[in-house]
Amino acid sequence: MIEIKTSTLSDGEFNRGVFAKRDIAKGELLHEAPVIPYPNEQHVHIEKTLLDDYAFEYGQNHTAFVLGYGMLFNHSYTPNATYDINFDNHTFDFFAYTDIKAGEEILINYNGEVDNQDPLWFNEETDNKDKSDK
């Protein structure tokens, strides 16, 4: 149903994204991504690595790495997919938020809610860095 291909939206050296292999109906389950959770107080170690950009909030006291295709969905403020955290199964469950056509890139809002327009953490860092460089 989904596959990893080169994305024009992703910058950096990997340029990957998740794409639909067939038409997908709104509400359809796209992927159940298992997670590796860890206590928030351990995140200080992760912040020193590239993995920091791939960690998701996982409840109030934990952070998690989302496995499978979960880390490869790119961001959009107008996403065609969303996700729910399934604590019982320890998965992030990705669903089509709109109908998705075969070949279309599947996008989520990194803020966790489809309509959340808050700046993303990596944009805030870039904005702050740009301001401090002037």
TrEMBL record:
Residues 1-111 form the SET domain. Gene3D superfamilies: SET domain (2.170.270.10). Keywords: Methyltransferase, Transferase. GO terms for molecular function: histone H3K37 methyltransferase activity. GO terms for biological process: methylation. InterPro entries: SET7_MeTrfase, SET_dom, SET_dom_sf. This is SET domain-containing protein-lysine N-methyltransferase. It comes from Domibacillus mangrovi.
